[in-house]
TrEMBL record:
It comes from Paenibacillus wynnii. It is found in: Cytoplasm. Pfam families: HTH_18, Response_reg. It comes from the Bacteria. The keyword Transport does not apply. This is Chemotaxis protein CheY. The modification 4-aspartylphosphate is found at D55.
Length: 547
């Protein structure tokens, strides 16, 4: 069990941290508070504190001064720093003091608990006394890579404020003249397969393995830093820093490095990857432009020609192709799904994918957009057919994972198979819902005929009401009741005719009108065709006479 001290002069922030932290889950038995650095030091003297959460801007004794004292007097104390966007000049001391993590105001639940979990992990490692190396360096090793990742990603997102973050620039080599920077974007095409077969579904271990390979294949002149992209689980961002030399050298060495990475990932773990590299730049802020190019290069890789791992850079020719969209075929696929003809739906899809296969090229980016579009279109179809989307998707996972589909594709054939798997998933749920709906619809149609047999009943009455084709409705009805709809109307009329003919007080002309026939002769002809005797002959058999 652990004791945590919150040091901040703002009561709302202390209260927010108290509310947001998962203290019980983290094993924190006591949570203490101090309103400034001096009071915090008093608390440290009175209690055995394991972790202190420190605001950098405080009266009397600020965070930087507090950390300097702690570094000397309480070297085993772990600290988490909280600062605003404009307070980064205070965190120079935080870097020297090897804080566990850096949180920006306003603090949110996810970042806070992630930082707390990191601190608890360190405390547990220390308690186990695994090694002196862990005790002295684990804090630095765990916090600085995360800080670098945040910095690089903020530059890529164009939200990085150079002036405010000046203290951190040396961490990414931005303070050294003559450095060149290149951004790379890499996708693991068979990630789910390898995660299941080689990593026992452990995502964290898999991501560590990938980034470790990218980072380790470095030398004195070219260094790499990579991390999982926050926007895609199978995608990784790599930033390359080359010391000195020319831009052309940076481009060449980065391409060579990335090809070596692709080869190593395939050899070590069986990964198949596609990667794009951007232009080299001398200004760290320009890695945003380099990354945009890298992503464009990756998305332009031709899936039709993809045979294993591939690494491309900005010098490779990028062509834009205008391939047809699946949207035009969705009405046909919808009709097939509605009629329960899965094979027909797949044949429509297959005819369309053949156009892509026979085209001049079909890129990874087009494949991504097609998958997203296909799911959106199928969601619309499911909604139109009253299929609850919660039956299709998991609330816990997004994308294809939410459909229970792995989503790997490293070739056009695998992409085509993925489209069919998605279609299978939706078809199964649509069939389940429609099976119940069809039974209800057919029952309603039968009941209507039973009660309105004397009217002029047209098939269009039902096709318009239930949005079903004439042929499909006739097929369903006959399959359910053994009669076509017209045949059933005739059967109900004839059954009713026999009942009415049993009443000697009713004239045949009256019965004809009651059954919806235009005249007596038309009714008589229909009755004879059905029972092989006229209404009069039938009455005679029953013991009555013609009226």
């Amino acid at each position: 069990m652990y004791k945590v001290l919150i040091i901040d002069d703002e009561e709302p922030l202390r209260e927010a941290i108290t509310i947001l932290g998962d203290w019980q889950g983290l094993g924190v038995e006591q949570l203490l508070e101090a309103t400034n650095g001096n009071m915090g030091l008093d608390m440290l003297r009175q209690h055995k504190i394991d972790l202190a959460i420190v605001d950098m801007k405080m009266p009397e004794l600020n965070g930087s001064e507090f950390l300097q004292i702690v570094e000397q007097d309480y070297p085993d104390l772990l600290t988490i720093v909280i600062s605003g966007y404009n307070d980064f000049e205070y965190t120079r001391q935080a870097i020297r003091s090897k804080v566990v993590d850096y949180l920006l105001k306003p603090v949110n639940r996810i970042d806070l608990n992630a930082a707390l979990q990191k601190a608890i992990d360190i405390l547990e490692a220390k308690r186990k006394k695994e090694s002196e190396f862990i005790n002295k360096n684990i804090t630095l090793n765990m916090s600085l890579p995360k800080l670098k990742e945040k910095m690089y990603f903020s530059i890529i997102e164009r939200s990085f404020k150079n002036q405010s973050n000046e203290a951190f620039l040396p961490l990414i080599g931005a303070d050294t003249a003559g450095n060149h920077f290149v951004a790379g974007h890499m996708r693991v095409l068979n990630l789910e397969q390898v995660r299941k077969e080689r990593f026992h579904k452990d995502s964290d271990l898999l991501h560590f393995a990938v980034t470790n390979v990218i980072n380790e294949i470095s030398d004195d002149q070219l260094q790499a830093f990579s991390f999982l992209s926050p926007k895609g689980e199978r995608e990784y961002i790599a930033i390359f820093t080359m010391k000195g030399g020319y831009k052309e050298d940076a481009a060449y060495r980065t391409l060579y490095h990335m090809k070596k990475v692709a080869s190593s990932l395939k050899e070590l773990f069986g990964f198949v990857v596609a990667a794009g590299l951007g232009h080299p730049y001398g200004d760290i802020m320009d890695i945003a432009k380099s990354y945009d190019t890298a992503k464009t290069v990756l998305n332009s890789v031709d899936l039709l020609k993809l045979k294993g791992s591939i690494v491309a850079n900005h010098s490779d020719k990028i062509t834009s192709k205008d391939n047809p969209s699946l949207t035009s075929r969705m009405p046909l696929i919808r009709n097939a799904l509605e009629s329960g003809s899965m094979n027909h739906a797949k044949s429509i899809l297959s005819e369309f994918t053949k156009k892509w296969r026979d085209s001049e090229g079909f890129s990874i980016g087009e494949a991504d957009r097609t998958l997203q579009e296909f799911i959106i279109l199928l969601n619309d179809v499911a909604s139109e057919l009253n299929v609850p989307l919660e039956r299709l998707r998991s609330e816990e996972e997004k994308g294809l994972g939410g459909l229970g589909i792995l989503g790997d594709f490293a070739s056009f054939e695998q992409f085509e198979a993925l489209l069919n798997e998605i279609l299978d998933r939706y078809s199964a749920e649509i069939s389940k819902v429609l099976a119940g709906d069809r039974s209800s619809v057919l029952g309603n149609i039968k009941a209507y005929i039973d009660n309105h047999y004397f009217e002029n009943i047209k098939i269009s009455l039902f096709t318009d009401k239930y949005f079903l084709s004439r042929e499909y409705l006739m097929k369903l009805f006959k399959g359910q009741y053994g009669y076509g709809i017209h045949e059933y109307v005739q059967k109900v009329r004839m059954d009713k005719a026999k009942d009415l003919l049993g009443d000697p007080n009713l004239k045949i002309q009256d019965i004809s009108e009651m059954l919806g026939y235009k005249d007596k002769n038309y009714f008589s002809k229909a009755f004879r065709n059905y029972y092989e005797c006229s209404p009069t002959e039938y009455r005679i058999v029953l013991g009555g006479g013609e009226k």
